[in-house]
Each structure stands twice: as structure tokens, then as C-alpha cells.
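name: query_chain
kind: protein
chains: 1
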Amino acid sequence: MNKRVVSIAVIIVFAACGGAWAVSFGQLKQRARTQQGEFWRDVRDIVVKMTSVHEAAEKDGTPLKMTMTSYRQKDSSRADMENRGFKNTVITKGKEYWTISKHGIFKGVRVDKENDKLYDWYSWLGNDAQITGEETIDSRPCYRIEAHDPGHIVAWIDKKSLLPREVAYTRENTKIRYMNFRAIKGAWEFPYMIVVYKNNIKLSEQIVDSVAINQGINDATFDYRAVASREYKLKENAPVNAMPDMSGLRSAMDNAGSSADMPDGQKQKIQEMLQKMKQSQPAE
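structure:
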């Protein structure tokens, strides 16, 4: 058999197995964006109630248990979090967000990396992302995608649902696993368990208690002023405090390796940002 025939045979087998050129990241990104649009046409709003447990997060080393209810429409989201009687709400519209508690209202701007990792994964992986293979996660065929913006990231995207099954951050040795997917409307799926690992040790676990769709969420649900006065009894003209710019802190941390190897200039920058964050928090 001549080399040309062998080469053609290899190409045919590779393509049949889903080779790298079978679909580009750009094509997959467009498919995911189109599918997301179809999702929000079918699922106009969604309410998720869950319990989150953060291992050894309390001062005495015991797990921190938090209940959370999230509300979401296509362009707006809200999360109510409660732990030991303390409650706060985060409302997001586009890149702006408001944090509300009995202490007051704080407003900030999200950086790109804070996009929804479940639905908007294609927007935060970066422009250099590439499909590097296909692997199976939890018995589901997935695209393996690698990116380097700013650190090495590997994401496994379900070939059918186009939702992430696992995301690994190599430099931080951290990974997020999306598990126990269930249908919530027709073929649309949602993960009922999200687990975060650091150095292969479980850090946190989110268990979904219930999912309700198309409940007709009132616009006031995403009105930070209405929430502040109605649910937190704050004055109607309560001041809106500015959250510190997180992009500088994130940039410093992204560019830093271990603290032992971190240049003094970066250590100083991080300390300054942490001090600004502390000053922006209301007194207990």
C-alpha cells in the first residue's frame, strides 16, 4: 500500500473519530451561542433552590452551610444567600451588579472572567481556545478544549447539550465538576450537583433541591431598589456604595505564582486592593 493511500486512510479514520478539524472552536462557539438563544426562548425564566456546603470554612474548621435561591432571566439574575440568619442578595444586569444586605447597597462591575460558567463558557475561555480532543466524562462524549488566558484551562464540553461537564485550572490545581444532569424541559438539561476540588480535595459542593421554570418572574425581582426597601427595610434613598475595582486584584493574582516567588511589587498591589475591599465593607 503506497503512502498516499495510507495517508488518506488515516485522515478518514481520524475524521470519523471526531478529529480536531471535524469542528473548530469557532464553530462550536457559534453552535453554543445559537443553542443558548433557543434555550432562553423555551425557558423564559428559571428559579433554582440549592444548598451549598464549603468544607472547613468556619473558624472552628466545620463546614459552612448556606442556602441559596437564584432567579434568572436571559439578561438578569439574582441570588439570595442565607447562612445562620444572615442574608444578602446579589442582582446582576449585564456587567453591573448590586450587593444588598441589612448593611446597605454596594454596586460593582463584573470582569469578563465572572461570566456564567455554565451557560457562557464560550465567552470566558479566551480567543486562543482550541479543541484538542474528545473524551468521555460521566459516560457522555465531550469535546476537550484548552485555553491559555491567562493560565492553562481545560474544559470538557458535552457534545450533545453543549454544557460543561468539567473545567480544570492547571496552575491553581483546581477543577469544577458539573454532575447529575437532569432534564428540566424537553431535552434541556441542568446539573443538580456542582463540586469544586483543590489539589484533589473537595472544597465545596452545591446540591440543587429544586428547579422551577417559566414561573413568570416579576420585574421587581431584579430591581435592587425595590428589593432593598421591601426585603431589607432600607430607606428608599439609601446610598449606593461603590465596590472596589476587582480587575486590578484579579490581574495581580493571575500573574502571580506562589506567594514565595511573588515579587514585592505584586504583593504590595494585592495588599492595597485587599485593604480597599475591607474599607468598602460596612461595619458589623
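note: Residues 1-21, 256-261, 277-284 have pLDDT under 50 and may be disordered.
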